Amino acid sequence: MRNTHNFNILIVDDDNDYRQVLELLLSNQGYDTQSASDAMEAMALIRQHEIDLMITDYRMKGMDGIALLNEVRRSNPGISIIVITAYGSVEKAVEAMRQGAFTYVIKGSDPEELLLEIEKIKHFRHLELENRTLKKQTNQFDFMLNTHHGHFRHLIETAKRAADSNANILVLGESGVGKEVLARYIHQHSSREANQFMAVNCHVFSDSVLESELFGHEKGSFTGAVARRIGRFEAADGGTLFLDEVGDMPLSTQAKLLRVLENHEIERIGSNQPLSVDFRLIAATHKNLDDEIRKGRFREDLYFRIATIVLEVPPLRERREDLPLYIDYFINQIQQDLKKQVSGMEPAVERFLLEYRYPGNIREMRNIIERLIVLSSTGTLMEKDLPTPKSPTPATGSGTPESASEASEAFSEDGVAGSFRALRVIRQEAESRHIQEVLKQCDYNVSEASKILEISHRQLNNKINEYGLRTPAGN
Ligand SMILES: Nc1ncnc2c1ncn2[C@@H]1O[C@H](COP(=O)(O)OP(=O)(O)OP(=O)(O)O)[C@@H](O)[C@H]1O
């Protein structure tokens, strides 16, 4: 059974039988449904309920499906729309898509097709929500300009200036330094701000899926292509395309990307109709692309295309002067998010936060502070809730115990508190091994693995980064 909770679908059709069949089909899948036999009734229901998706017949007495679609797009632009049409009026349905319908479905076709389209809509809505949340976060990132680190300040100022141009930007830096945050910051300070920021992580898709993600495909262009799909290049039209982990892109896709950047045109897989696209590319990688070029794994001509401006984000451990700024920022943010008041921290916690080397960079600092706040029952951040051995090993090593032997050192270190920390380390190791095994089982398909592990796609990506797990393409 699909996870369909809290997804409210309005069915509009003057054909009672068809409407009832659809209602039955969708409520059997666990969706909440409302139904209306004409446009007026539909509009009344939209005013009363929070509707996520409207499925409307094209041809109806009175106001037809297209007029209803236009009315809903104007009054409730957040509602996704699918148009149902009879055989023979496909051009009209395509017109409906041009007017803003997500897709069309032919009456009497396999119901599984409709269910798949609904799944897709849910997926897109989820991405949009994530996008909005990240965008809200990005609004607060002007605090980055308060940096005390000369090179980082210069970098942010360059990013802001570069935002005005249309130049392709390459962001380099270790995992978790904030490359995506910087990319969003650039988008937000650019003239494309009102349009999409479309992020694609090249590392999480297998080679063929990556191409279909980027270019989209026509229905029937390969097994499993049950409906037309708009790719990310097209979806980023007018906005910014963020290609994360571009160093992991297979050579064949690199060649195709280069052509798109040269011609500003794409063809969906299974179509030979060129479509012009206009997006600004920001690419990012934690890899050393010079090395990759030398080893023949990255095209030099593509490098020159994507690297008009290169921004290299320094690791957090090289910006020690900024640690107090970030610590305060995250404590403020997280206490607001969790609605929990932080009254202070034990001196050992402060020492730790200021001396730790943060191999996972800003992402790791955020996680550590979040954990300290979640675990604190008194409002004071406590040493016992720190995730690693007490000594932060500021000068050498990563500061995170990486092996069972390090864990067992922590184990013998200081009685009960040490034992808890060691257990935590062992648990993290077990978790990392388990995730690696599941990934392997699923042939490194992150979506499939996240389902088995019962965590979100994003959480799994974070774990992959946190534990430095690499799929074969990343090795
Ligand atoms: N300047 C910043 N201000 C606030 N939070 C930040 C900042 N930079 C990074 N973060 C936090 O760190 C997390 C990681 O950032 P981001 O995803 O941008 O890093 P990344 O370098 O793109 O990582 P990866 O290479 O693993 O994709 C974000 O979710 C965000 O919470």
Short descriptors:
Helicase, Ruva Protein, domain 3; P-loop_NTPase; alpha/beta; Rossmann fold; ATP binding; 475 residues; 5-stranded parallel β-sheet; phosphoprotein; 16 strands; binds adenosine-5'-triphosphate; single chain; 19 helices; transcription; ATP-binding
Structure characterization notes:
One of its GO terms (molecular function) is sequence-specific DNA binding. It holds the Pfam family HTH_8. Keywords: ATP-binding, DNA-binding, Nucleotide-binding, Phosphoprotein, Transcription, Transcription regulation. With about 475 residues, the chain is α/β, with parallel strands linked by helices. The protein has 4 domains: about 10-125, Rossmann fold (3-Layer(aba) Sandwich), CATH 3.40.50; about 145-315, 3-Layer(aba) Sandwich (Rossmann fold), CATH 3.40.50.300; about 320-400, Helicase, Ruva Protein, domain 3 (Orthogonal Bundle); about 405-475, Orthogonal Bundle (Arc Repressor Mutant, subunit A), CATH 1.10.10. Helices cover about 50% and strands about 15% of the residues. It contains 19 helices and 16 strands. The strands form 5 sheets. The chain has a 5-stranded parallel beta sheet, sandwiched between helices. Helix 16 runs antiparallel to helix 17. The longest helix has 29 residues, at about 110-140. It is globular. It starts with 7 loop residues before the first strand and ends in a 9-residue tail after the last helix. The structure holds adenosine-5'-triphosphate. Adenosine-5'-triphosphate binds near residues 173, 176, 181, 244 and 366.
